[in-house]
Amino acid sequence: MSALLEVTDLHAGYGPADVLHGVGFAVANGGITTVLGANGAGKTTLLRAVCGLIRRRGNVQFDGQSIATRTTERIVRMGLAHVPDGRGTFTLLSTEENLRVGAITRRDSRGVAADMQKMFTYFPRLQERRGQQAGTLSGGEQQMLAIARALMLRPKLLVLDEPSFGLAPMVVQDIFRIMRTVNQEEKVSILLVEQNARLALELADTAYLLETGRVVQGGPSEQLRDDETVRRAYLGY
Amino acid sequence: MDAFLHQVLSGLATGGIYAALALALVMIYQSTHHINFAQGEMAMFSTYIAWSFIDAGFPYWVAFVLTVLASLLIGIVIERVVIRPVEHAPVLSVVIVFIALLVILNSTAGWIFSYTIKTFPSPFDWRGLQNSYLSPHEIGSIGVTLMVLLVLYGFFRFTSLGLAMRAAAQNPVSSRLVGIRVGWMLALGWGLAAAIGAIAGMMIAPVIYLDPNMMSGVMLYAFAAALLGGIDNPFGAVLGGFIVGVVENIAGAYIVGTELKLSVALVLIVGVLLFRPSGLFGRRYVVRV
Ligand SMILES: Nc1ncnc2c1ncn2[C@@H]1O[C@H](COP(=O)(O)OP(=O)(O)O)[C@@H](O)[C@H]1O
Ligand SMILES: [Mg+2]
């Protein structure tokens, strides 16, 4: 399998100081990669750097092209959808309008309508909340909405920043089930950042461990799952 | 009773103009969180453009359309050239830029067109509609403002571009993450605000005449309207415009007299800021996290 996203020697940060110091990782075409790490390790920063929201330097190859100097808008239009930290809900828009916004760069209105129906079968709760102002949705519903909004782009790569954060276990199960479905049936590759290491390692084929802006371990998920230090630090047994 | 009804109806006519200008203020406020103090001067300048077209012999409605298009373009250029560079500057710097823009537009208009007062034609001179309640221009002006409001509503509610503009105003980062070119949306918002201002200017100019300072009083009412309705709520601002128009007329006719009418706007502004800073219809929505 060739890589859909390949990052090497990535440096990025906010002010003058770097938060990431030469990070490298890859997402296989059709694969699921997870990046694990403690709070403040730089996971969110990594995702922001990949899609050009912050200052960065290094090599980022997406779908055969270098995107290290491209604007976020162009990267998104190439088929990279990002579910941001904090969900990024358009709180004053309705649920349905949030989904329409997700597909705003698409020109195939029939396909968009069909995809909206598909989102409602993935997330029946969203259909019930269709006309409701999105800011009034519960945390779990807003997370579903954020994922659905990203999928409305029909992306090649779905990037998720801690989708399980603050959610009830039942909802988390649901969301992970949908990610698996989307990956298997729609052939959408996934880059997942998670605190919930156990679930993430179950879902992903490849995993990386980020510590203070550096990748300290990487490889097939089973390998990290069985690793003594990973187990103690992130899995808790 | 007839006289009272007349005051109310003609208040709605000017109220429509305040509503349009208040809406322009709200549009820019929603996307930038700044009050565009130059909104009135932009409208005044546009009205001079219309006057120039008419003076050059263009039919009224051709001049009208050309002016709206030119204003749209000027609004976009102002955003990209003047406002964009201070996007992340402190509030005070931005206010100074707005004031500078106001002064520059005002003196440029005075320099090009002179400070002498000019008459501006009304396209509505149907004799058939003569009645004691409203002049033909007032009827036409209400019609035009309602049309503007309707078109804007349709644009923001039903078109993809309108949706993108609303999204960009609300959440710029999320908007970029769905591929919206946020910068252009902001510029387009300025263009629309300028176009709305142009229409308001052309509708009020036959009543208050054309001169570089024509909008100062009108804008005071528009600010009052926007504050009254809630500076972040377009529907509130429109309603505020009509309310202010009617209150202004009634107060002018029965309470304070025409000379002191403008103080009504000040009383409204101070009153709203004191007792209900978010306005009558300011947003108070629930956000769960
Ligand atoms: N907007 C920001 N401005 C400045 N520094 C930031 C910002 N966001 C995060 N950081 C810093 O970058 C580092 C990594 O943060 P982050 O990427 O959010 O970590 P994680 O997502 O792994 O919890 C932290 O030290 C944090 O303080
Ligand atoms: Mg984070």
Count every beta strand of chain B, where a strand is a DSSP E run of 2 or more residues.
0
**Major sheet strand order of chain A:** 6-7-8-3-9-10
Overall pLDDT confidence of chain B: 91
N- to C-terminal separation of chain A?
33 Å
Helix proportion range of chain A: 25-40%
Helix/strand/pairing class of chain B, anyone?
mainly alpha
Brief overview, please?
Helices cover 39% and strands 27% of the residues of chain A. Chain A is of the alpha/beta class and 237 residues long.
What does this 3D model show about the protein?
The complex is a heterodimer of chains A (237) and B (289). Chain A is α/β, with parallel strands linked by helices and 237 residues long. Chain A has 10 helices and 10 strands. Chain A has a domain at 1-79 and 156-163 and 188-237: 3-Layer(aba) Sandwich (Rossmann fold), CATH 3.40.50.300. Helices cover 39% and strands 27% of the residues of chain A. In chain A, the strands form 2 sheets. Chain A has a 6-stranded mixed β-sheet, with helices on both faces. In chain A, helix 3 (95-102) runs parallel beside helix 6 (139-151). Chain A is globular, with a radius of gyration of 17 Å. Chain A starts with a strand and ends with a helix. The model of chain A has no long low-confidence stretch (mean pLDDT 94). Chain B has one domain (2-121, 135-275): ABC transporter involved in vitamin B12 uptake, BtuC (Orthogonal Bundle). Chain B is globular. The model of chain B is unreliable at 285-289 (pLDDT under 50). Classes of the chains: A alpha/beta (237), B mainly alpha (289). Magnesium ion binds next to helix 1 of chain A. Magnesium ion (MG) is lined by residues 43-44, 85, 162 of chain A.
